[in-house]
Design a protein that fits this description.
196 residues, alpha/beta, 6-stranded parallel β-sheet, 6 helices, 6 strands, 32% helix, 12% strand, globular
Length: 196
């Protein structure tokens, strides 16, 4: 109509400089280098049935560390206690950071991996690559805008918890190779990522 062609809107969000500085400070306080490849895990959603098991995220975190990648876990204020096993395992936890600072953490990270939650959509909007673990990709699903291939789903009729860790790890490797991150180019899946 009127010679105009509809186009897909691409959400863009520029992290305010003060929030980006605070995110950078959180990286440094957790002995992370903002210039090194980093995976940000956002394991919890607002609905437990949409969550992938924390022990599987921990398995991915160990595999990432083994591959010389930095790891950071994020979440909301109510997730601090739930992420205590992650902290005990020696990983950086920044749960409870203000949302704009968390957006800065996503901006500084190479890849964000998590469930079907608004934070992963925010990570896409700040221009970062994500892997979203979600229950399905039916019409109307909120997969990463314009990128249904960035979502991993379980076999039909299965819960999110049925997504296999090696599938997620392979997706992480594929993304990092796609982004030409050399750390994973030679890092085969050699760790047992399934829960004991």
């Amino acid at each position: 109509a009127g010679g105009l062609r509809p186009a897909l809107a691409t959400p863009q969000f520029v992290v305010p400089e003060p929030a980006l500085r605070l995110a950078n400070q959180l990286f440094l306080e957790n002995n992370l280098n903002p210039d090194r490849p980093t995976i940000l895990f956002q394991p919890f959603t607002s609905t437990p049935s949409k969550d992938w098991p924390l022990d599987l995220y921990l398995g991915l975190a160990h595999a990432a560390r083994h591959s010389q990648l930095q790891v950071i876990f994020g979440g909301g204020p109510s997730d601090v206690h739930r992420l205590e096993p992650v902290r005990r395992a020696g990983f950086a936890v920044v749960a409870g950071a203000p949302l704009l600072v968390s957006a800065g953490l996503a901006r500084l990270s190479t890849l964000t991996v998590g469930g079907d939650t608004g934070f992963l959509h925010l990570a896409v909007a700040v221009g970062q690559r994500v892997i979203m673990l979600m229950g399905h990709k039916h019409p109307g699903s909120c997969y990463p805008l314009g990128h249904p291939e960035w979502a991993i789903i379980p076999p039909a009729g299965s819960p999110v918890a049925a997504i296999l860790a090696p599938v997620v790890w392979q997706a992480c490797q594929d993304v990092l190779v796609e982004l030409t991150i050399p750390a994973l180019a030679e890092a085969p899946l050699s760790l047992d990522l399934e829960p004991a």
